[in-house]
Amino acid sequence: EIVMTQSPATLSVSPGERATLSCRASQSVSSNLAWYQQKPGQAPRLLIYGASTRATGIPARFSGSGSGTEFTLTISSLQSEDFAVYYCQQYNNWPPTAFGQGTKVEIK
Amino acid sequence: EVQLVQSGAEVKKPGESLKISCKGSGYSFTSYWIGWVRQMPGKGLEWMGIIYPGDSDTRYSPSFQGQVTISADKSISTAYLQWSSLKASDTAMYYCARLLHKHIVNSAVDYWGQGTLVTVSS
Questions:
Q1: Is B105 within 8 Å of A46 when comparing Cβ atoms?
Q2: Confidence band of B106 (pLDDT split at 50, 70, 90)
């Protein structure tokens, strides 16, 4: 079973600053990696799939990179609505049990 | 517009059975895998299992195999998640989730239901 590890657990960032979130897979998942954003009381929202493709309607300040076992989500200039929990998920192998444990992006 | 609309919150006692639903609209229900994701209070996301309504091919994550049953009725574009005997540890929010790419099981989730809160307490 593939294990996804996200770091850091919490990231404190000021509005307008850049945020860099990491996700590591215990074995290669190729580019079959997605990122989701979840705000309190809401369902998750797909941000990135295929490691680097933005989902429909996602602002350009969100970008994803990486392949194999190392992945990064970058938010270039944090807006107030971006403070949330972010999850990565591999879908290279079923079951895709592996969501990461999440990174909470909070206001510094 | 694609929508997944889930049934309402449930409060049950340990040992009771439960079936929650997720109705899809705005797309070809039989052409996309649809699954269930658990989120326990204050915790992360866990895939439970997934079904292809076109032929009812169903896959379960190892942790949930034998614990729940996933089904679908394509005539009414509805997927289900069912328990035969609930435990207090089943207390969680449950989301249905549609996969992004037609026919393909190895895919990200592009649409989510609003969630069904299940509370199991004596």
A1: no
A2: confident
